[in-house]
What does this fold into?
Amino acid sequence: MFDDFYSQFKLNFIDENRWVSLLKGLGTTLEITFLALILGLVIGIVIAAIRSTYDKNQSSLKKKGGFGYVVMRILNFICNLYLTIIRGTPVVVQLMIAYFIIFANAKDGTLVAVFAFGLNSGAYVAEIFRGGIMSVDNGQFEAGRSLGFNYPQTMIHIIIPQAFKTVLPTLCNEFIVLIKETSVAGYVGVMDLTKAGDIIRGRTFSAFMPLIAVALIYLLLVIILSSLVKRLERRLRKNER
It folds into this structure.
């Protein structure tokens, strides 16, 4: 039994240095995840700021009317449309649309995957941040005005940092979800971790070893990140006390 296990292990990972493919695939998965998270954060913060600004100041903007109200209403409509489309369609479909339609001539599938996953993550990050911004007491806006800040400066220097601290654990959980979502990057020819395992399976005609190895690597990543999130939450609770 041990001899059979070793022969399968050798066939799937040691022969032709197939383990290197898993290592490279893991690197690609982490690269896509980190870059997509950064893109998602930028998109999410901008959209959350626009939507929360419109929600908090809708009545006063409507009374004033004019160009500012029209611009904010259009921006809010665009943001809502973006959120509806992105959250209402599967990420794998978005990925294929990005690769085969929007960037049909792209040679680097990794960058397309970063764009698609970043765009998808941005919709969820936006709602996370909007909830954080809306939870900040309105007195903080008044404090910003007393310091001589205008509304954008108050958002940047006072509101968003407080909201970021509030939503940080939830953002970390979004990061964990994003890692698992990137497993579909192989649909556009990206050599990620899942694709590497599938290629090994296709070459060795042995499904158990490579696919279980891929699952265990993802599980290990999630366990490590979940542990870090729990530590972060405990530290934040201690700081609040």
Observations:
- The chain is about 85% helix and 0% strand.
- Residues 30-191 form a domain with the MetI-like fold fold (CATH 1.10.3720.10).
- The chain has a mean pLDDT of 88.
- Residues 19-64 form the longest helix (46 residues).
